[in-house]
Amino acid sequence: MKKALITGITGQDGAYLAEFLLKKGYEVHGVKRRSSLFNTDRIDHLYRDPHETGVKFKLYYGDMTDSTNLIRLVQEVQPDEIYNLAAQSHVKVSFETPEYTANADGVGVLRLLEAVRLLGMTEKTRIYQASTSELYGLVQAVPQNETTPFYPRSPYAVAKLYGYWIIVNYREAYNMYACNGILFNHESPIRGETFVTRKITRAASKIALGLQNCLYVGNLLAKRDWGHAKDYIEAMWLMLQQDKAEDFVIATGITTTVRDFIRLSFAELGIEIEFSGKDEREKGVIIDIDQDKVTELGLNADALRFGQTVVKVDPKYFRPTEVELLIGDATKAREKLGWVPKYDLEALVKDMICADLQEVKKDDYLRRGGFKTLNYFE
Ligand code: NDP
Ligand code: GDR
């Protein structure tokens, strides 16, 4: 039975990957951070009481900024495969916490590589590094593939650039099986709520139910190559099953503006949005409502009206330096790994809207029932 160690197991990708590897028969060991509130929502369904026999899913406290912790964990688990998914992964937040981001996302990768090397496990343990399309940053060429030059545009991307190169360096210097997955944006119903797609699908669901008036966003013109996280974690695993460690771009090859993602999300709810105005004054207004869909989905018809402004720009979401255009070329992954995504953008939006609508309805139902109004400080 193979053993996998996943850092960042409580995140979007960590949760999907853990489930995927357990289904493949792996023993899965995950690193979670200590926090004052539970942070394991995404993986609670995988948890089993460790007192039972045959438990194949184990969690440990750890942090990418703590070398001794990582060395001890690698020694204890003796993993065949390590998936390094842990990171301060929010680009905008990295401008506010640049030093921490460099430490966790950049030097953290080195700590993990050193743990494997110092423990003499370079021949046993294969390492996947969560590299990113943010490395391309300021557009040098499109579509972006494994040979496109990097030009990072945020403290996050600069930290990930270090992570990328230290993986390449340890592969060449110590003959380690270490590889970078240069993954373009991938989303899902369990995507963090402050990333733009999830922010949009949650807000659209709330607006459609009359629980929120307006969605405030930043740059509507940014273009991203959005895929589904379920497809992308499979590519991570494939990268560690090859004869030779190599780096791969994982992307759909289709790029969409933030503005169009908003349009598609509202359309999924039967609400047509038209944008007008320029720059900070741009806004999105309802121009049509599909009443059959409103009934079918159980939306709040009274809360929706023609001409209602449901999207506005708030410059506080602008970034000091922006990545305007990402579009990936995953030809190498298709040819060498046989990787082909199953979800297209429409299927992704549908999946996210469907899940958020259900979740928002559930929260509202509980709130109305008085279950969420407890105030511990009264
Ligand atoms: P998430 O933000 O959902 O998850 C990040 C995970 O890292 C969480 O489990 C988080 O813990 C953990 N973490 C953060 N800081 C530390 C630290 N210092 N030590 C240990 N763990 C830490 O990210 P995703 O799942 O979306 O992404 C996974 C990885 O892939 C990240 O490295 C990200 O940068 C990279 N990536 C993501 C892409 C995407 O579109 N999703 C595209 C390309 C790369 P906690 O839950 O406690 O916060
Ligand atoms: P990104 O994802 O920066 O590409 O990083 P995010 O969803 O945060 O932003 C995508 C684009 O949308 C624009 N935008 C907004 N973004 C957020 N978060 N909130 C807003 O209100 C908003 N309005 C417009 C952004 O400016 C940007 O252009 C993600 C992360 O998962 C990284 O960890 C990963 O490496 C990359 O994807 C690939």
Automatic annotation (TrEMBL):
One of its GO terms (molecular function) is NADP+ binding. Residues 5-352 form the NAD(P)-binding domain. InterPro entries: GDP_Man_deHydtase, NAD(P)-bd_dom, NAD(P)-bd_dom_sf. The keyword Hydrolase does not apply. GO terms for biological process: 'de novo' GDP-L-fucose biosynthetic process. It is an enzyme of class 4 (lyase). Its EC number is 4.2.1.47. Keywords: Lyase, NADP. It catalyses: GDP-alpha-D-mannose = GDP-4-dehydro-alpha-D-rhamnose + H2O. Its cofactor is NADP(+). CDD domains: GDP_MD_SDR_e (cd05260). Catalyzes the conversion of GDP-D-mannose to GDP-4-dehydro-6-deoxy-D-mannose. Belongs to the NAD(P)-dependent epimerase/dehydratase family. GDP-mannose 4,6-dehydratase subfamily. This is GDP-mannose 4,6-dehydratase. It comes from Mucilaginibacter ginsenosidivorans. The gene is gmd.
